[in-house]
Structure formats: C-alpha cells, structure tokens
C-alpha cells in the first residue's frame, strides 16, 4: 500500500512540474520586475513604487484573483473544496469554511504588506542614518562622521540584499499560490 501511495505522489509531482512550467515566464518576469523596482529605489531621487502599499496590494490582489479564476477554470466547482478540509464533521463545516475563506483572502493582504513594509523599513532606516551623517558633517565633526558613513555603506549593501530577497519571496509565494490551480489538496 505504501508503494502505491509513493508512486501516486511521484506521478502527481511530475505532472505538476510539467503543468507548472507554463507559469515560469510569468513568475520570472514578476521576479525581475520587482528586483528592478526595488533596486532602482536605492538611487537618489528615484521613486520606489514597491514601498507603497497600494502598488504591492494591487499586485498581490491581482495574483490572488488570477489564482481563483484559474482554479475555477481548471477544477470548476471542485476548486471550492479547498475551503473545506476532508473528514470534518458537518457541524463544524460552516465555521471552517468561513475561517478557510478568510485565510485564503488574507493571502493578498500578507503578500502585499510584506513587500511594502520591508522596502519601506529599509528606506526609513537609510534616511535616518544619512540625516545623522549629514548633520555630523555639516557641524564640522568630519572625523566622527566616518562611522555613520561606514554604516550607510553597509546598509546600502543590506538594502540590495533585501531588494532581491523580497522579490524572491514574493515570486515564491506566487508560485505556491499558483500550485493550488494545479493540485487541489
């Protein structure tokens, strides 16, 4: 029985991999788009759209809507079965359906807020420390201002890393959500 179960799991994973390849161009473009927006925001006087919740929430909401539509196209009404775990008593069903629906909808909020909050936090920290360094330089404390300038160099490297990691996390979660359109449970 275990052998049959493992074989079935392997077949599903192989088929999901082949079917999931059609999403690769979208996810790769999404990743490159977010990396470019995040990194360009590190240059002086350049607007960072991903630091604003409206942009990131709109992007994540459109992804969740696409997941719902693709799930309904692929599985018809069976797609809604992911809102009801198997083997649950019918008395608990209304509560679980509400909880699962809310958790499914919170995906859009968490996906967008995570990206905007991390990018905004880095920009805010960079702005505070650069203001501190500028104040020290303008008051004539050039020797003491070397420490904040060194911290600014370190934070710039950290911001580049955060920009790439946040784009990766956004793309990875998008891939996981798109996986629901290929395999229900």
Give a written overview of the molecule.
With 185 residues, the protein is mostly helical. It has one domain. It is built from five helices and no strands. The longest helix has 46 residues. The mean pLDDT is 83.
Structural category is mainly alpha
The domain tally reads 1
**Principal-axes shape call:** elongated
What is the number of helices?
Answer: 5
Characterize the largest beta sheet: strand count, sense, and whether it forms a barrel: none
Average pLDDT taken over every residue:
83
Low-confidence spans: none
Task: List the topology elements.
Layout: H1 2-20, H2 24-40, H3 53-75, H4 93-138, H5 146-179
Question: In brief, what are we looking at here?
Answer:
The chain has 5 helices and no strands.
Quickly list its features.
5 helices
